[in-house]
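Contributing new complexes? Match this layout with beta-D-galactopyranose.
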Amino acid sequence: MLTTDKFGEVAGHAVTAYTIENHNGVQLTVLDYGATWHALNVPTPDGSHQNLILNTDLAGYAKPDGYFGKAIGRFAGRVGAGQLVLDGQPVAVPANEGTTTLHGGPNGFSTLFFKAAAAADHVTFTRTVTPETDGFPGTLEVSVTYTLTEADEVVIDFTGATDQTTVFNPTNHVYWNLNSADDTIENHTLQLAATSHYELEPSKVLTGAVVANADTPYDFRGPRLLGPALRDLQVIPEAGLDDVFAIDDHAATEPVAVLSQGQRQVTMYSARNAVVVFTSNHFGDELHFLRHQSRPYVGIAMEAQTSAAGLVDPDLTQATLAAGTSRHEQIRYAFKY
Ligand code: GAL
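Output block (do not edit by hand):
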């Protein structure tokens, strides 16, 4: 079942909210602004609903770092020195974090208004992203489809088709908090299909080196409570996780990440080779959420993507989208509540 509502206006653009409800009473709400995942309301034992993701209002979404639930592209994560290498040639792209291009730069997917086509169980957002739009090469036809299944899964399908060689490395920046009360994610357990993670520069750009996770605070191969794991990370300036995990080779049926709190659980599936885990380490009063007080560890983002290692070693580039081609990427979240 689909309902549409006026959500508000940003910079003269009307923003519409699309809500899909399945037969179990789960409700998925998405916005055409930023192709944003705004809410995942699950039924509670007392007959009401609870949202399992962090969300904000239009002022919050319009902030430059308001990536909450947004579609991210063309390149999720960080392009160091604002420079891609395509067909062996350096290509400059606009920076938005010092000299780094984060999450597609200042005019990435998260800032754009999409055209919507809605049906009973899915909403498809489409947009033509030109070099004039975001400063990346090639005119990219983008679609982002959110589907809510009767098996309580949210499936996000991204497609990109380009006329000139570019990059297509989309993700979604949803932050989870599975608690009933306004608690942090320190009482959640996390498991990742990752035996290693990427070493980062202080700027968080990849060095290209890979570090083994065994016997380090980054070892999430088995379910691990986040509170103690975050305490182990207080010695680093980040004071938490903001890391690129290298996902082990796996079958499509095997999850890449499992987040649990009590009987609630989110299991994420992706064929990509990396997941960035970010535990909102320095969040404070500058941010405003509808149901949560902003503070460190208020949410956890698990961003399935293609690692930026290909920017360091072009032999590894998998995010490149060759002229005249298209690619489909999918992230699937199965949840229990
Ligand atoms: C993450 C990134 C963090 C931070 C966050 C958005 O993907 O790794 O450093 O920028 O997005 O606030």
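Reviewers usually confirm one structural detail per submission. For this one: DSSP finds four helices and 28 strands in the chain.
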